[in-house]
Amino acid sequence: MVGVHVVSPCFAGIVFVLYRPGSAAVQQSFFDELATILDRVATYQEPTYVIGDFNIRLDRVDDPHAAQFRLYSSVTSALLYTTGARCCDALVAWDARR
Asked: What is the pTM of this model?
């Protein structure tokens, strides 16, 4: 994961790029680490974007990892955007000011 704090005349926010290899099984540590990072950046009170390929099939309602990801997104007031029904690429946006 790579993260930057971006400040410009048109935008201020935190952007993370994340890749989770699809060849490895999803571990709880993925969710734990993501939660830790987002908890830390929440203190900045700026929009936070996590962009990447999580390799989690968010379109599968019976996938426990997808359900956990969607649940975490809803608990943190995240907006979740995917690039397609079968695609695992996603943009997750948290705005601590909401």
From this structure: 0.68
